[in-house]
């Protein structure tokens, strides 16, 4: 007899053993994180700056921790590690922001080269994940560390996009 796959019926299991529809907002949030992580992998392949590549790889690894916390499989130490990432993001934002030439406080049309355009795209995906997480608050408690993490990450991706574009002498469309 052939094994029946739950996914074929539109359901998935959480690490807790709970079965939920794939349309559940939690699955939408976890799927968004997966999409963001995949996009950062593509972006990393397009960036020539080794330090930025290293930052992106560390972010990719940390996104798995966010998914664990959301799925109920993250320990208290994993939640606390998200606070550490928020502090690290703040430090990186300050560092890279300081390297940008003027103008700094402007709206930039997402564009660029050398991975900068994909960093802008990743920022937009990150913002969508943030909106999904806020919507998810209507259904379940979201640890504040998760929301801080994703909000700060989008800020960092914006600054990195501008940094990569300026470093590669790509025209920024303001």
What is the helical fraction, as a range of percent? 55-70%
Globally, the shape reads: elongated
Number of domains: 1
SSE run: EEHHHHH
CATH class: Mainly Alpha
CATH homologous superfamily descriptor: Cobalamin adenosyltransferase-like
Output mean pLDDT.
91
The N- to C-terminal Cα distance equals 62 Å
Count helical runs: 5
Biggest sheet statistics: 2 strands, antiparallel
Architecture (CATH level 2) name: Up-down Bundle
Largest beta sheet: strand ordering: 1-2
Q: Which fold name fills CATH's third level, the topology? A: Hypothetical Protein Ta1238, Chain: A
Radius of gyration: 18 Å
Strand percentage: under 5%
| Residue runs with pLDDT of under 50 for 5 or more positions | none
Number of strands: 2
SS-derived structural category: mainly alpha
Describe the structure.
With 174 residues, the chain is mainly alpha-helical. It has one domain (6-167): Cobalamin adenosyltransferase-like (Hypothetical Protein Ta1238, Chain: A, Up-down Bundle). The protein contains five helices and two strands. The chain has a two-stranded antiparallel sheet. Helix 1 (25-46) runs antiparallel to helix 2 and helix 4 (116-136) runs antiparallel to helix 5. The mean pLDDT is 91.
């Amino acid at each position: 007899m052939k094994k029946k796959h739950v996914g074929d019926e539109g359901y998935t299991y959480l690490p807790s053993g709970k079965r939920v529809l794939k349309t559940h907002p939690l699955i939408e949030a976890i799927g968004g994180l997966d999409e963001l992580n995949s996009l950062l992998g593509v972006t990393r392949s397009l960036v020539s700056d080794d330090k930025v590549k290293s930052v992106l790889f560390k972010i990719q690894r940390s996104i798995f921790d966010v998914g664990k916390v959301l799925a109920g499989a993250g320990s208290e130490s994993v939640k606390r590690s998200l606070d550490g990432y928020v502090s690290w993001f703040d430090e990186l934002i300050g560092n890279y922001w300081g390297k940008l030439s003027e103008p700094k406080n402007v709206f930039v049309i997402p564009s660029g080269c050398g991975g900068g355009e994909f960093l802008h795209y990743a920022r937009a995906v990150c913002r969508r994940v943030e909106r999904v997480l806020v919507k998810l608050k209507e259904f379940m408690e979201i640890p504040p560390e998760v929301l801080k993490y994703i909000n700060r990450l989008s800020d960092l991706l914006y600054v990195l996009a501008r940094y990569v574009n300026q470093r590669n002498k790509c025209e920024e469309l303001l």
